[in-house]
Specification:
The protein is an alpha+beta fold and 324 residues long. The chain contains nine helices and 14 strands. It is globular. 31% of the residues are buried.
Length: 324
């Protein structure tokens, strides 16, 4: 770790002792002028300086890796700048630079409301729907640009209270992004969080024989991850006891609490389809949630079997109503 409390890095003064997150980066807050920002230092790659240890051949290899890393981030910044204004619900990169051997990313500091999925699920349904729709609206912007977030999870969705005392969601951390149907050929560079992997994402990453085509990894992978997250937002718990991509592949069942509207259950069920081409687009998801009403009917005995034999015939999910 190279940044510490009080350090000045490219004009940014570190305000808090940094902490390690995910083993891949360290984060803190920094001031520059009259503003306070979020700062992230990447733990890898490290740019080799002339006096760095190692052979020139090895340093040249590391420099090439660093240049690819720079290009990866700059491509995203350029694309996002085309569509996103600062201060919106997509937290864009304000500054990206190398300082010494390390790379840094600067974004706005978000005054978030720390909330777990369980806490979100206890909010009035109207508030949960606002949060879900704001997430969909942001992801719709990314998908329009053919950008796959690649690491959607509750930690990367910050909840913010608005001036009207409503809630909205800010999307952060695009470091694992890739363009639809064009993931990194080095599968080890797709990190993400296994709890939120889509089946095709897991297949691609875990394919030791390198036979899975990267073209299978599209924006529909984000849809699956969002399906898991939205289930957690509405219920306060995970849909399965195992990884969702494993459960879906095994055709396990998902159960909804009695207070979840059938309209919400139907949308999430569609988002969690095993086959990516059977999932809705983010625009479809957004439009469906816009039509959900807080007084939509619920059924306390509903169990939906995901990816049932009936679904494989494209006739829709199997809905089983058990006697009360």
């Amino acid at each position: 770790m190279s940044m510490h409390l009080g350090d000045i890095i490219n004009g940014y003064t570190i305000l808090e002792e940094p902490k390690v997150v995910g083993g891949m980066s360290i984060i803190s807050f920094a001031s520059k002028g009259d503003e306070v920002f979020f700062i992230k230092e990447f733990l890898a790659p490290k740019y080799p300086l002339p006096d760095s240890p190692g052979s020139e051949k090895m340093k040249e290899k590391k420099r090439n890796e660093c240049l690819a890393f720079e290009e990866h981030h700059k491509q995203l910044i350029d694309k996002i700048d085309q569509r996103v204004e600062r201060g919106g619900n997509i937290v864009k990169t304000i500054d990206f630079f190398r300082w010494g051997t390390c790379y840094y990313k600067i974004t706005d500091r978000i005054d978030m409301v720390p909330m777990t999925c369980e806490e979100i699920s206890k909010m009035p349904l109207e508030n949960i729907l606002i949060i879900v729709k704001s997430v969909c609206h942001s992801i719709r912007t990314l998908h329009h640009l053919k950008i796959v977030h690649g690491d959607l999870k509750p930690d990367n969705i910050l909840i913010k209270k608005t001036e009207t005392n409503d809630y909205t969601a800010k999307i952060i951390d695009f470091d694992d992004y890739f363009f639809s149907a064009n993931p990194p050929k080095d599968r080890g560079k797709i990190v993400g969080s296994p709890e939120y992997y889509s089946p095709e994402q897991a297949n691609y990453i875990l394919d030791e024989e390198m036979k899975v085509d990267g073209k299978t990894l599209t924006c529909k992978s984000d849809i699956f991850s969002l399906g898991i997250i939205f289930y957690e937002f509405f219920t306060g718990k995970k849909p399965f006891s195992s990884y969702s991509y494993v459960a879906i592949t095994k055709r396990e069942t998902i159960e909804y609490p009695h207070n979840i509207p059938l309209s919400v259950q139907e949308i999430i069920n569609q988002m969690l389809k095993l086959e990516a081409n059977e999932r809705p687009t983010i625009n479809d998801v957004f439009e469906k949630f816009k039509r959900v009403k807080p007084d939509d009917p619920c059924d306390s005995s509903l169990i939906i079997k995901i990816n049932s034999e009936k679904e494989k015939e494209n006739t829709g999910p199997l809905i089983i109503n058990f006697p009360k």
